[in-house]
Amino acid sequence: MKEIIVGVDGSEPSLLATDWAAAEAARRKAPLRVVHVVPPWLYEAPADPGASLIRDRLLQDGRNIVDLGAARARDRAPGLEVTGEQTGGQPAEALLRRARDALMVVTGPRGTGGLTGLVLGSVAVQVATHAPCPAVVVRPSEPSARGEIVVGVDGSPAGAAAIGFAFEEASVRRVRLRALLAWTSPVSTGPGDMLPLVYDRELLAADEERLLAESLAGWRTEYPDVDVVPAAVRGRAARVLAEASADADLLVVGSRGRGGFTGLLLGSVGHAVLHRAHCPVAIVRGRP
């Protein structure tokens, strides 16, 4: 079975991400791999005996971080299959390599190397942007089960993958799924698409309601056990989803939606909710 990967660095945010990943692995009956990444030069044999002592101490510190994360995961989910791993390299690159064959990859918002005041660190952004599997960023929040998952719907391929992931999560957790499609005006669907200068708001609202229903139809059939609350809401997607996340256990969005610039791996809505959401955020990439 595919593993869930979680990155740890000994910081409290990374340990909270480990708690979340352990609970998720237990729900899905999947193994969990706790990964700590150290600078690659620590695996090179230094000529200076003094440097060797420092190297050995730093490697031991890293092993202690792995052990701490693995022990925390086992405490959070007794009986869970947990593997600890320390490796050398750049943290984001190491996590992304392991994400190629993973069920999902989980990080905290920022770790020990993050600049004070930053809401989101570079590792979390890079992993969320490039991960081939769902990437979950666990923001610090009050630990409470709200019984709801929120998913952003937009009619894009990545949005469709996000809907599928959200339905699966809601089914596994046995919670309600709130599917939100936010709209403000007609959206370009590709290069050369001419947008009207004047449009009928009621007709557009009806079109968005139709898109929402069509986007959910197949998944509702596949997951009849999931209670779905759909809503097409007039407003900017990032604001609508961030506000809804205040009452959610998880917010799920596609990596890039309608109207996004070709070539962008993570769209503006994904970036915004990673910074503004009140709960963990899952970024899901569409199939190539």
Automatic annotation (TrEMBL):
One Pfam family cited in the UniProt record for this chain: Usp
TM helices/strands, residue ranges: none
Location of the UspA domain: 2-139, 149-285
Cited InterPro entries: Rossmann-like_a/b/a_fold, Universal_stress_UspA, UspA
Homology family: Belongs to the universal stress protein A family.
Name recorded for this polypeptide: Nucleotide-binding universal stress UspA family protein
The species this protein was found in: Actinomadura hallensis
Highest classification ranks of the organism: Bacteria, Bacillati, Actinomycetota, Actinomycetes, Streptosporangiales
